């Protein structure tokens, strides 16, 4: 397909314009074939730093590096042709100064071709968001449960149970909005608090373990496909990949053992 006939990608301003409109459909992806499948159904594909946990087997996202994000970002960009692709800036790559954030975010954009980055946004983040946006980098923010801060928070738990933390979460979202974010992920907060955030900001809220009333939803794709037994309580499994893989591998092992495995060179043809 030539550059002229290819359907244009969804842009960050188009996502912002969806505030209060049709819900924005988002999922994570980390590889080209999955991204190609999601592309027809999703407005936004996030190359989340959850890749560290769901692909690389880490116990938190803290060990994820910029190089890992770039490699997975490149793969997703090869698979997705239409959705807006956002790549997470990993822990340690943006917090210390806007200049560091710009250096790393621009590297991610240039080396992957993605259209935006996401940062987990505490109260320190507004200056960095404005700095990136002014210099041409669309930013999606992330408030509520911020997995990169899990060593401070003490675990993956819902946030905003006290009045002061709930207020801090609303304030962080407002600050991220004012600084120029094009959307904000709201993770692991009560329905009531997610609805408050959605009302308080002019940009779309993308909920995960939050509220159906957010402007959009996101899930970690291997979680919703049922690849793992243990997933957060709010995750609905839309498939049962774990069982399917188990059954497929068992059948394969059986065929190899019984020598009924198809081995004729004539069968070495692509089926589609
Ligand atoms: O890393 C990730 O997958 C995310 C989503 C959970 C929003 O940040």
Describe this entry's structure for a reader.
The protein is α/β, with parallel strands linked by helices. The chain is 39% helix and 14% strand. It has a single domain, classed as TIM Barrel. It has an 8-stranded parallel barrel with strand order 1-2-3-4-5-6-7-8, surrounded by 5 helices. The chain starts with 11 loop residues before the first helix and ends in a 14-residue tail after the last helix. The site of 3-methyl-2-oxobutanoic acid has 12 residues, from strand 6.
- SSE string, helices as H and strands as E: HEHEHHEHEHEHHEHEEHH
Average residue pLDDT: 94
Percentage of residues in DSSP E strands: 5-15%
The first-level CATH class name: Alpha Beta
Terminal CA distance reads 19 Å
DSSP strand count: 8
